[in-house]
Amino acid sequence: MKKCVIAISMAISFSAAGGLRHYSSSVEASDWQLIEKSRLQCTLSHQLPGYGEAMFTSLASKQLNMEFELDMFKLPRNYAVAAVYSVPPAWMPGQMQREIAQMPIRKQYNGDLPEKAAWTMLSELEKGYWPTLYYQDWYSDFDKIAVALNASNFSRPYTEFAQCVANLLPFSFEDISYTVLSYQSNSIDLTKYSKKRLQMIGEYLKEDTDLDLILLDGYTDSYGGSWNNKQLSIRRAVEIKTFFSDMGVDPSRIEVTGHGERRHVAPNDNKMSRAKNRRVVIRMAK
After folding, report:
1. Taking a C-beta distance cutoff of 8 angstroms, is the pair 259, 234 a contact?
2. pLDDT digits (tens, 9 = 90+) for 183-216
């Protein structure tokens, strides 16, 4: 362990006169937990006694993503940079430490790292290395800080975390929060593409029913008479409201408005243009 500490000190040019305060969990108490597990978010957490919490998070999205966040009891007082290294523990003699990234430190904000660095840290933990951050203490000119993530007891929670990430929805709330559904002529039957879109929304609502408001605006083309079109636009929107209610959304949070043949988005002088006017617009707010 002494050789490891000396090597670390040399690599990051610590002053011999400076103190080093080291924060990490002991091997026996190293605690990794999957604190968020759903198809919307996966978060793997590691407690750092006396310092805070380290978290790796991936969210439902079209693109695979990952973020590392260092939730600190004492937020930074100024702007700086922390050096992030992969450090071999004492029971890996002869192994070299490797630099992973430089983490910007922002005043009054938690530290964080983007996707590539976060994945690298996870890979190093999987191999038994301890990702460690070094920076000048912003509350003392005499001290430097080392914050280490202990790889002990990491394997099983990480496997659960990886499985959670693999099961995330391939789209986010932003991808469905504004959706236009199209309809067959003079009916409440959705087009094939719109059925798929509605199914996507249904999959999301199974995981997250805590929406503040859903606005459903129904429209028709100009064929069939204005009164009939008004009623048809309402029926279309009500059908969608029923679908959302069945998914667990509180009906009182769903507002339905039928506009009939008003507010066209395209001319009604040809088949293709009329199809664009037969629609229900869904707007969601959280």
Report:
1. no
2. 998 899 999 999 999 999 999 999 998 889 999 9
